[in-house]
Amino acid sequence: MKLVVQVKLLPTPEQAAAMEATLHAANRAANLVAKIAFERRCFRNFDLRRHTYDRIKAEYALAAQAAQHVIKKVCDAYRTLHAGLAAGNLGKPGSPRRARIEARPISFRPLAAQPYDDRCLSWQHDARTVSIWTSAGRLKGVAFTGSAQQLALLAAHRRGESDLICRDGMWFLHATVEVADAPATRPDGFLGVDLGIANIATTSTGTRHSGKALNAVRHRNRELRRRLQAKQTRSAKRLLKRRRKEARFAAHVNHIIAKSIVTEAERTGRGIALEDLQGIRERVRLRKPQRVTLHSWSFHQLGAFVGYKAARSGVAVIHVDPSYTSQQCSHCGHVDKNNRTSQETFACTSCGFAEHADVNAARNIASRGAAGWAVSHAA
Fold this sequence. Notes:
Layout: E1 2-10, H1 13-40, H2 45-60, H3 64-87, H4 96-102, E2 114-116, E3 121-124, E4 129-134, E5 137-145, H5 148-157, E6 158-167, E7 170-178, E8 190-195, E9 199-203, E10 208-210, H6 212-231, H7 234-242, H8 245-268, E11 271-275, H9 280-283, H10 288-295, H11 299-313, E12 317-320, E13 345-347, E14 354-356, H12 357-376
Parallel strand pairs: 8-11, 11-12
Antiparallel strand pairs: 1-5, 1-7, 2-6, 3-4, 4-5, 6-7, 8-9, 9-10, 13-14
C-alpha cells in the first residue's frame, strides 16, 4: 500500500527564500500551462509538452525535470477536474457553479505544492538532510526532522515522488512510501460500525465515539466565519484565509477513532463492516440548517483511515448496504420506521427489544458484513 510521510524542513532564511522563489516560479509557469491547455483543449501530457515545455523553461528559468513536473501537475489537475465534472460533484450541467468552473482555466496558488523526483531531490538519511533543486541553484544540507516512526518508514520504504509544501510559513516534504500489506486473517465475525453526526462512530460492541466536541468546534468556527465574512475588511479576509484548524482537528479525531476501531477488531480477531455511503449527500433530503452539518461530516475520510490502518494490520474490511439499518431490529429482524422513536432510542414494535439506536444499527451492519463475506468467499 502507498502511504504519505510528512517531514518538516528546517531551512536557513537564505534556503527558505530560494525555495519560496522556486514555488512562485513553478506556479506562475503552471498557470501559463493551464491557460494554454484550456485554450487549445489539450490535456494530454505528451501533447501539452510540445506547446509549453521550451517556453516555460526559458521564461521561468526552470530545469528540465522541474518543467516536466509543472506540465504533469497541470494535466493531473485537469484530469481531477474533469472526473469531478463527470461525476456531478461540481454541479449539474447548466448550473451557475458548473458554468463558472468550465468557463475559465485552472489556476494555482503562488505557494502551491511542487512535485520532485530523485533527479531534483536526494535524501541523506544519516545526516537528516536533503539536497534539493531550486531556481537559484542546488541547495545542499537542508535539515529535516520528523517522528521516529515516520523517519524509519521514509528510510526503508520511500518510492516515487515527493512534494515540497509551504504552510503557514513552515516547510514540509510529503514523501510517498510503499509498505507491504499484512496478510489478511480469516475473520471470526465482524465488528459493525455505524457512522453518524451525533455519534461519529458506534461499534456493535457498544463503543460510542461522540461527535459533541467536534460539532461544537465546527459550530463555533461557522459562527466566526459568518462574522468575519460580514465585516469585509482586509484583516478579516486575511484571517479567513489562515484558518485551517478545523480540518486538522477533524482529521486528528478521525485518526483516533479509526485506530480505536482497528485495534478492537485486531484484538478480537474480527473483521470490520462499514456502511457504503457513496452518494449520501445527493440522496439525503434535509432542512437547510442541517445541510451544513451533513456536508461538513467527514465520513469518507474516516472510512479511508479505517481502510488503510486495517490493511496494515491484516484486518478484513467489507462495505455493506446501509438501507434500513436504523429501522431494523437486530434481535428479530423486523423493519419499521416506528422502531426508531428518537435519535438515541430504538424499541422494536414487534418483539419489544430495546437498545441504543446507533448500537442496534451497528449490530445490523455487523450481521450484513458476515453475510456479505460468506457470499463473497463461498468458494
